[in-house]
Design brief:
The chain is α/β, with parallel strands linked by helices and about 325 residues long. The protein folds into two domains: about 1-120 and about 250-320, D-Maltodextrin-Binding Protein, domain 2 (3-Layer(aba) Sandwich); about 125-240, D-Maltodextrin-Binding Protein, domain 2 (3-Layer(aba) Sandwich). The chain has twelve helices and ten strands. Strands 1, 2, 3, 4, 5, 6, 7, 8, 9 and 10 form a ten-stranded mixed β-sheet that branches. α6 (about 160-175) links the parallel β5 and β6 (about 180). α1 crosses α10 (about 260-275) and α2 (about 40-60) packs across α10 (about 260-275).
């Protein structure tokens, strides 16, 4: 027994030494961030903002690869099955917590198939409509859609997207089923909203703030408890009349399961440094969000947050009867 314990200890020390030596030379080539949505959407925006200071901190190029499809699950599956060497990392939003309830045959496990790196930010949602939508405020909008539910439509960026989750909660809150128009990404959905082809949607401030400020779309409320500094005149959904309606979309970094701890530690430190970058803070502020505190940009904090969000959203989505094969 003692010999076995000694051998196991020695094997552990050898593995740790190997990983430490490997991490000492890391990174030696380009690092790819997989984003499971199309270019131009809010998650893609966050990834590209983070890639710049991360490249500086790591002294290597950090690039973004968009692998969209099936509400983010195609990209997530690619990331989960990538080599655990630190050269492929993954950025996703709240969809990591909702996928188990949305998909009956999920090809990966969000909790066990990834190594958490750290949270990045939390993004408010905005309830917006095409510029000429007749309702002047949220109360009028709710009254209008209830009376004209066969004529209006609600856009989203696809099953499992942030806009889909927010829209589902909205329909549940007003006890009205609406015609939903799913798109392959936030960009196409926003383009059709701007063009008046769809009536309204609920999407992240990272995608809507500039359009709201330019007067290209109407805004009825933000989904946080407090107003958003970048949109100070926009009431919260609670203030606007839909009591208790609150949704925050968070983003986080992950690596494939088995990525050596020294590399995870280096990536976590890099994320923390990037979140303090003045450009990141300014651009996040412009988009209606802000970086999380350093103590939340850790594997431990992300692991707890992912578990809590999975436990929260599972029953909500199952009750709503929303799922995909």
């Amino acid at each position: 027994m003692r010999k076995m314990l000694l051998l196991l200890t020695m094997a552990g020390l050898v593995l740790f030494s190997f990983q430490s030596l490997f991490a000492a030379d890391y990174p030696a080539k380009v690092i790819t961030i997989i984003v499971p949505f199309t270019a131009g959407g809010p998650t893609d925006t966050v990834a590209r903002l983070m890639a710049v200071p991360m490249s500086k901190a790591l002294n290597t190029q950090v690039i973004v690869e968009n692998v969209d499809g099936a509400g983010g699950t195609v990209g997530a599956n690619r990331a989960a099955k990538s080599a655990p060497d630190g050269y492929t990392i993954f950025l996703h939003h709240i969809g990591m917590a909702t996928a188990p309830a949305l998909y009956r045959k999920l090809p990966y496990n969000p909790i066990t198939d990834f190594e958490p790196i750290g949270l990045i930010n939390e993004v408010p949602m905005t309830f917006v409509a095409k510029k000429d939508f007749p309702a002047k405020n949220l109360k009028e909008l709710i009254t209008y859609v209830k009376a004209n539910k066969a004529k209006v439509n609600l856009a989203n960026a696809g099953l499992g997207a942030a806009s889909h989750l927010c829209g589902t909660l909205f329909m549940t809150a007003i006890e009205t089923d609406l015609t939903t128009i799913p798109y392959k990404g936030t960009g196409p959905a926003m383009n059709d909203l701007l063009g008046g082809q769809v009536d309204f949607m609920c999407d992240q401030t990272t995608n809507t703030t500039s359009q709201i400020k330019a007067g290209k779309i109407k805004v009825y409320g933000v989904t946080t408890k407090k107003r958003v500094p970048s949109l100070p005149d926009v009431p919260t959904m609670d203030e606007a009349g839909l009591k208790g309606f609150e949704v925050a979309i968070w983003h986080a970094f992950y690596a494939p399961k088995g990525t050596p701890k020294p590399i995870i530690d280096k990536l976590t430190k890099t994320v923390q440094v990037a979140l303090k970058d003045n450009m990141v803070k300014q651009r996040f502020g412009d988009l209606g969000t802000e970086p999380v505190s350093e103590d939340r940009a850790t594997p431990e904090a992300l692991r707890k947050h992912l578990k809590a969000e999975t436990d929260k959203w599972g029953p909500i989505l199952k009750k709503a009867g929303v799922y995909a094969d």
